[in-house]
Specification:
This protein has helices at about 1-60, 65-70, 80-105, 105-110, 110-145, 150-155. The chain is mainly alpha-helical. The chain has one domain (about 1-160): LemA-like domain (de novo design (two linked rop proteins), Up-down Bundle), CATH 1.20.1440. The radius of gyration is 24 Å and the shape is rod-shaped. Keywords: Membrane, Transmembrane, Transmembrane helix. InterPro entries: LemA-like_dom_sf, MamQ_LemA.
Length: about 180
């Protein structure tokens, strides 16, 4: 009789722990999805600003059609991989817009273009902050997934480690380019 009570009590404790860990992992997923939506909103705003920059640039460079057609499909995304692709594509288009702008000094001095450049800089800051939040949430989730005994619950639920949003390395120097010589 005592043995049966101990077994039932142990089973209840294990089931309760399992449910608690499962709920914790579910909350982590919700946090990741929520913070990812912030990135998607920022990417949508950035897309709109890039579209406006293209309209302004088009007036100056009608023959630069290649740049303007590449903006298609760069708006919102669903998965982390798609978000990484959208950010990379937007960065490519921005680089091309800047290259077009260098060929047209009047465009570079246009108040509307300068205002849009400031908006892009602000949106880049928002995007970086949003990416840090997503990656922080992903880090917490991944740590839980690989930590024993929570890894047992994650395995049972079929969960695997989440991907991180990629760091924007545009314009950053490679460590091999640094001069380490101390005279």
């Amino acid at each position: 009789m005592v043995f049966a009570v101990v077994v039932i009590l142990a089973a209840v404790i294990i089931i309760g722990w399992f449910i608690g860990q499962s709920n914790r992992l579910n909350r982590y997923v919700v946090s990741i999805e929520e913070s990812k939506k912030t990135v998607d909103i920022t990417l949508a705003k950035r897309y709109d600003t890039i579209s406006e920059m293209l309209k302004v640039a088009k007036a100056y460079a009608k023959h630069e059609e290649k740049v303007f057609t590449e903006l298609v499909g760069l708006r919102q995304s669903a998965s982390i991989q798609e978000t990484n692709r959208a950010m990379a594509n937007q960065n490519d288009v921005l680089s091309q817009i800047r290259a077009v702008a260098e060929n047209y000094p009047d465009l570079m001095s246009s108040q509307q273009f300068l205002t849009l450049q400031k908006e892009i800089a602000s949106e880049n800051d928002e995007l970086a902050a949003s990416k840090r939040i997503v990656n922080s949430n992903v880090r917490v989730m991944n740590q839980a997934i690989v930590s024993f005994p929570t890894s047992l619950v994650a395995g049972f639920k079929g969960m695997s480690k989440f991907d991180f949003l990629e760091e924007d390395l545009e314009g950053k120097k490679d460590l091999k380019d640094l001069d380490y010589n101390i005279d």
